[in-house]
Design brief:
The complex is a heterotrimer of chains A (780), B (287) and C (167). With 780 residues, chain A is α+β, with helices and mostly antiparallel strands. Chain A contains 20 helices and 28 strands. Chain A has 3 domains: 153 residues, Aldehyde Oxidoreductase, domain 4; 199 residues, Aldehyde Oxidoreductase, domain 3; 321 residues, 2-Layer Sandwich (Aldehyde Oxidoreductase, domain 4). In chain A, the strands form 7 sheets. Chain A has a 7-stranded mixed β-sheet, with helices on both faces. Chain A has a 5-stranded mixed β-sheet with strand order 7-15-14-13-8, with helices on both faces. A 4-stranded mixed β-sheet of chain A has the order 18-26-27-28, sandwiched between helices. In chain A, β20, α15 and β21 form a beta-alpha-beta unit. With 287 residues, chain B is an alpha+beta fold. Helices cover 35% and strands 26% of the residues of chain B. In chain C, strands 2-1-5-3-4 form a 5-stranded mixed β-sheet, covered by helices on one side. Chain C has 2 domains: 76 residues, Ubiquitin-like (UB roll), CATH 3.10.20; 64 residues, DNA polymerase, domain 1 (Orthogonal Bundle). Chain C is elongated, with a radius of gyration of 17 Å. In chain C, β3 and β4 form a beta hairpin. Chain C is 28% helix and 15% strand. Chain C has 167 residues and is α+β, with helices and mostly antiparallel strands. Classes of the chains: A alpha+beta (780), B alpha+beta (287), C alpha+beta (167). Chains in contact: A-B, A-C, B-C. Chains A and C meet through α1 and α18 of A and α2, α3, α4 and α5 of C.
């Protein structure tokens, strides 16, 4: 069920991004060649923890074609400031700081395998890598600090500058009344769940070209980024140049999923190196081995949950204790568990939540954002629901129903003081259950078991905190201009990297302005022309940039109607707009086209209504009415597990989702599919293991396995459109596919295995080796 | 990930190629399909000072029948073999193994000889060569010699080829009527290296099994013949308890594990793939 | 013995146009296409032949350009994604089906998908759903979850046997 608003909103309009991307005419960072560009390669540590006892770059420097070689001693002293806008400047509070110690290149010691030690700048990447091979590095290795609880307790420090390996901790409080509640509860169930360390794997790795010309005093950066303004601000602070002297451009960007949201270690080093060089452009294009080894990690999290439940399955209270691994140099040191706690209760009425969390440094690559960074709350909670149902002998779907927030409960204030409204957990559960056909499936499951086949069903629901709209992320801008020909340009602070923003925002503007969609140009990704915005991430663009675009369109529409009313000697309320023509309702011949209105406003302002100034420019910002705009969905899937090989075949995958007013249903479904595929990867295939010495073991695509087409099923979608409270009724949903899929799949696999008495697996990945081991251990 | 520098040669004959190998010794490598070698060079895991490109040598890409064998030239592309009617009829086990190799784009360049000479123990074609008792023709500066497949695979990525030899052809024995073949493997994703796999062939004489072969891959440093299991089949006939035969095959191996699967998994699931492959092979032999 | 390695000069016909390139023997075809011929549509996703973003046609066969040295290809005929469109510049069936079915989001894997699918459907015009997915197994995509690509393949194929309705 989809609703169409006006001419374009709610329509699966084909993308204007596609013609160039389908024909090889995209413009990604590596596609732009500027004569004289130099190429950068990193020399990296192959030791996880240790002191650099020798670093001789002389042979590298002497190689013909090498322009410069810089080490930590060369670049680190140049740092003026180094912090991420989203996290804020470093504030020392009682010994705890939100950042690891800052450095661009290893400061005399290395802290993870892949830690950049030096940069080589040469006339080609080939020569730069040749030179990197000539750098003599000796490192006195020390035992790496690894694990979660082990690292927390380890007196050996990842960072000598800190007092412990725990960067941020909020110990779980002991409250006598709560303990009494748990003591008296009919059922108390405790489980621990563990995610598998993963990484984002955008198909385009990271990269940027930085050109600082010291005589022009300007720094120009072209980057594969989700936020041009973030790189600009970061670079301005890092170098002391100031934002007026830094320009950042991103045309096409090949995915990010959070990896390209923050400025990570290498990008900062490239900026500093180009600044120091001060002459030619310096280009660094990350290769896949670097991307898998040294970009970022995610999902290495553990959660211990204790649920107090009554005999009917009502959840009385929950304790949740999270530990997240943040590696050595995360761009900011661990706030995802806090957000996870804030939204932990999800779609359920859980009256009491007692949280604890800790973020721990290890000698591995730093943690950064990955699609739904807080989603450990759903990964663990939704698996826990099935465990609780099992303990009580209840159907997992019924247990959810008993606890779900229903329409009559809205607005609902959670145990963490979040106010949930405009969500539809029961409706999406009902739709998902109906679409997957639970009753028919249970019969099929029994029959299959009789024939030696194991089928399983899993369900998971969540509420997504989309469109964060407070603090640094409070709003998004839109600058809407109409040129003298009557066509419009909208400038945004977004950073589309696959999000179809050029199309969807044009849908919004064209609908509300009343023009053809081809008359709307969408401009983003250039700090010289794009107003300040946080880029694209956190499922914010539809709500906040969409709201800004809508606001701007309505303001411009208003002005056009006022001018037209003046020309047509009519009341603005009696006018309508069709295809860029303003006319009197019922009198189509009394009409004036946009072009004429625009020409007047630009070139003959004396003909404008009294009191109206020349020009047609709208500058506006939009902040939604609530700090989060909630969306929700329920996923359901059916799997078959081969009990002899442990291989999992996903037979059906259903998503019932509510993202409010859909702008472009095709785009919504594409976002869901991509997210679910990543979730499937995280359960069945993806893992970044390290050995005991801290060596990463999956640094090529032969070892880090992302799903390919045969591993992914056809998706079935159901759409519930309940309007949000934000302008347009939009809700963000880009991350949702990746949030519910891991537990839905985990639950399905465990449901299949339960039929033969195998206790549920709780540690990702559920690869064939792990499944067969579990079956073998259960002696079934 | 760019390769380091190398001298490049594109000889027109086998003779020129092997002279180059003799001249440059360990610092020289041959380039056939490049699907295994070039990644190693780009990762700088393999240092090659002299690259001898075999792709200009004529006459190494033919497929033909001779003397009860199917002769596949070493430079026959995997995709050409896959779509060759004569391979399907004369060496069905080769035809069944080929679609498991990587993806079609890889097979468009990868060669039959290259895969066998690369000798990755998790690959299908070395196991097929071993299972079919193929004869491998190696040519060096002193001419050609024939190496039995049982003598060919020495270890992971190590073969009987001398430093100045290249593989020029593989002769696969042709089995007669009433034979059936199957390939079964478990891989994390389609086209990945197998966690464990079996290539099997049986030939029936009534209900008696007159010929049997079981080749295992992914479970040792080389492909492995499960000879005890084969003997059990020959002794037991088409009605044999295949689970017992498969368990015999699994009992004979001691695979090590890696991040994708434990050794215990590979050993245990080998029994499954052998049983499934034998079931299919016998069914095909009967039809 | 001198260790100076001479450049090689190769003649390549790419998308119907003849080019002469001089480069080191070690220069990968991907880099020659992108840097020397300014055909940046062929993308570098992994440089070890796994992701498929670099797929081009060599004498009509889909291959990984990151696993070829330009030095090997004197006289070769190549087709890249820039040569996939119809002679009149319109999108070919695969490209149009990709747009119709939202088979791309960020577009980085797309050139490899377009080239691979065009070649595959040319040779297998009537694939089943399973065959389509297996054919796509050599092209990794992180954005689409493959659904749009599979639907595009269904539409572009001469296709009575595959189930599923394209948008």
């Amino acid at each position: 069920m989809t609703t169409t608003v006006g001419r374009y909103i709610g329509q699966s309009v084909k993308r204007r991004e596609d013609p160039r991307l389908l024909t090889g005419h995209g413009r990604y960072v590596d596609d732009v060649q500027v004569p004289g560009t130099l190429h950068l390669a990193f020399v990296r540590s192959n030791v996880a923890r240790g002191t650099i006892t020798k670093l001789d770059v002389s042979a590298a420097r002497d190689l013909p074609g090498v322009e410069a070689v810089y080490t930590g001693a060369d670049l680190n002293p140049d740092i003026k400031q180094m912090w991420a806008t989203m996290t804020g400047p470093p504030i020392e509070m009682g010994g705890q700081t939100a950042y690891p110690p800052v450095s661009l290149l290893a400061p005399g010691d290395v802290r993870y395998v892949g830690d950049p030690i030096a940069v080589i700048i040469a006339t080609s990447r080939y020569i730069a890598e040749d030179a990197a091979d000539l750098v003599e590095v000796e490192i006195e290795a020390k035992q790496a600090v690894l694990g979660l609880r082990e690292a927390m307790a380890n007196p050996e420090l990842v960072h000598l500058e800190t007092e412990s390996n725990v960067s941020v901790a909020m110990p779980m409080p002991e409250i006598p009344e709560i303990e009494a509640l748990f003591a008296s509860a009919p059922h108390v169930i405790t489980r621990t769940f563990r995610g598998a360390r993963a990484t984002n794997v955008p198909m385009e790795p990271r990269g940027l070209t930085v050109h600082y010309d010291r005589y022009r005093g300007e720094m120009e950066i072209r980057a594969a980024t989700q936020s041009v303004h973030e790189i600009k601000a970061f670079a301005a602070r890092l170098t002391g140049l100031g934002e007026s002297h830094v320009r950042v451009v991103a045309d096409d960007v090949g995915g990010g999923f959070g990896q390209k949201m923050m400025v990570l270690r290498e990008e900062a080093a490239v900026i500093a190196a180009a600044f120091k060089l001060g002459t030619a452009p310096v280009k660094w294009i990350e290769d896949r081995r670097e991307n898998l080894m040294a970009s970022n990690q995610a999902r290495s999290e553990e959660g211990t949950l204790t649920f107090a439940v009554d005999d009917d399955g009502h959840i009385l209270a929950v304790k949740c204790d999270f530990i997240e691994e943040i590696g050595a140099y995360p761009p900011s040191a661990g706030a995802t568990a806090m957000l996870a706690i804030g939204v932990f209760t999800g779609p359920y009425k859980i009256p009491v939540l007692i949280p604890g969390c800790a973020a721990v440094y290890t000698n591995t690559v730093g943690k950064s954002a990955y699609r739904g960074p807080w989603a450990l709350e759903t990964f663990f909670r939704e698996q826990m629901m099935d465990h609780v149902a099992h303990e009580l002998g209840m159907d997992p779907i019924e247990l959810r129903r008993v606890n779900l927030i229903g329409p009559g409960d809205l607005p609902y204030t959670t145990a963490t003081q979040m106010v949930l409204d405009h969500i539809t957990p029961t409706e999406t559960l009902d739709q998902a259950v109906d679409m997957i056909g639970v009753t028919a499936f249970r019969a099929e499951q029994v029959d299959a078991k009789a024939h030696g086949r194991l089928l399983g069903l899993g369900v998971a629901g969540y509420v997504e905190p989309s469109a964060i709209a407070f603090g640094v992320l409070n709003s998004d801008p839109a600058v809407l201009t109409m040129d003298a020909s009557g066509k419009v340009q909208i400038r945004l602070g977004t950073g589309s990297h696959g999000h179809s923003i050029e199309t969807t925002i044009a849908q919004i503007v064209a609908t509300h302005l009343g023009c053809d969609i081809d008359d709307v140009a969408v401009i983003q990704g250039d700090t010289a022309t794009s107003p300040l915005g946080p880029g694209t991430g956190g499922s914010r663009t539809a709500v906040i940039a969409g709201g800004a675009a809508q606001t701007a369109s309505l303001i411009l529409r208003d002005k056009l109607l006022t001018i037209a009313a003046h020309f047509l000697e009519a009341n603005p309320d009696d006018l309508e707009i069709n295809n860029s023509v303003v006319s009197v309702k019922g009198t189509p011949q009394a009409a004036v086209p946009f072009a004429q209105l625009a020409m007047t406003a630009h070139m003959a302002p004396d003909m404008l209504p009294a009191g109206m100034g020349p020009g047609l420019e709208v500058v506006t910002r939009y902040q939604p009415p609530t700090p989060f705009t909630w969306s929700n969905a329920t996923h359901a899937c059916i799997v078959e597990v081969d009990r002899e090989t442990g291989m999992v075949d996903i037979k059906r995958y259903v998503v019932s989702e509510d993202c409010g007013q859909m702008i472009n249903p095709m785009v919504v479904e594409g976002q869901i599919a991509g997210g679910v595929a990543q979730g499937i990867g995280g359960v069945l295939f993806e893992e970044m293991p390290y050995d005991d010495a801290g060596n990463p073991l999956a640094t090529t695509f032969l070892d880090y396995l992302i799903p390919s087409a045969p591993e992914i099923p056809d998706f079935e979608y159901g759409h519930i459109e309940s309007m949000s409270g934000a302008l347009g009724g939009y809700k963000g949903m880009g991350e949702g596919g990746a949030i519910a899929s891991p537990p839905a799949l985990a639950n399905a696999i465990n449901d299949a295995l339960a039929q033969i008495g195998v206790p549920p697996l709780t540690v990702f990945p559920f690869g064939p080796s792990q499944i067969v081991a579990a079956i073998t251990a259960a002696h079934v | 990930m760019k390769p380091s520098k190398f001298h490049y040669y594109a000889p027109a004959t086998v003779g020129e190629a092997v002279l180059l190998l003799a001249e440059h010794g360990d610092d020289a490598k041959v380039l056939a399909g490049g699907q295994s070698l070039v990644p190693l060079m780009s990762l700088r895991l393999s240092s090659v000072g002299h690259l001898v490109d075999l792709n200009r040598i004529a006459g190494l890409d033919t497929i033909g029948r001779s003397n009860g064998h199917l002769r596949i030239g070493a430079l026959v592309r995997q995709s050409a073999a896959e779509h060759s009617a004569i391979v399907v009829t004369e060496a069905p086990l080769v035809a069944k193994a080929l679609p498991h190799i990587g993806h079609f784009q890889i097979r468009n360049r990868g060669t039959v000889g290259g895969s066998i000479a690369h000798a990755d123990p998790a690959s299908e074609l070395p196991a097929v060569a071993l299972a079919l008792d193929a004869m491998l023709e190696a040519t060096g500066p002193n001419g050609a010699r024939r190496i039995a497949s049982t003598d060919f695979f020495h270890g992971q990525w190590q073969t009987a080829l001398a430093g100045d030899e290249m593989l020029t052809a593989i002769d696969f024995p042709v089995w007669g009527a009433h034979s059936g073949f199957a390939v079964e493997e478990v891989a994390r994703r389609h086209g990945d290296f197998a966690l464990c796999g079996a290539v099997c062939g049986v030939q029936l004489d009534g209900e008696r099994i007159s010929r049997a072969t079981i080749g295992l891959f992914g479970v040792g440093s080389t492909p492995i013949r499960a000879t005890l299991a084969e003997q059990a089949l020959l002794a037991g006939g088409a009605g044999t308890d295949l689970t017992a035969v498969a368990n015999e095959a699994a009992a004979s191996i001691d695979p090590s594990g890696d991040i994708h699967a434990s050794g215990a998994y590979r050993k245990q699931v080998t029994a499954v793939v052998v049983r499934r492959a034998l079931t299919k092979a016998i069914e095909e032999a009967r039809s | 013995m001198s260790d100076t390695i001479s450049d090689v000069t190769v003649s390549l016909t790419v998308n119907g146009r003849r080019h002469t390139v001089t480069c080191e023997p070690r220069k990968l075809l991907t880099d020659v296409l992108r840097d020397d011929l300014l055909l940046t549509g062929t993308h570098v996703g992994c440089e070890h032949g796994a992701c498929g973003a670099c797929t081009v046609l060599l004498d009509g066969a889909a291959v990984r350009s990151c696993l070829l040295f330009a030095a090997q290809l004197d006289g070769a005929t190549l087709t890249t994604v820039e040569g996939m469109a119809n002679a009149d510049g319109s999108l070919n069936d695969v490209q149009q089906a990709m747009q119709d079915n939202h088979g791309l989001q960020c577009g980085f894997c797309t050139p490899g998908v377009v080239v691979s699918l065009t070649a595959y459907l040319r040779d297998h015009p009537d694939p089943t759903d399973d065959e389509i997915r297996i054919a796509l197994s050599g092209n990794l995509c992180r954005c689409t979850g493959y659904q749009g690509i599979v639907n595009a393949a269904r539409q572009a194929a001469v296709n009575p046997r595959a189930k599923g309705v394209a948008r």
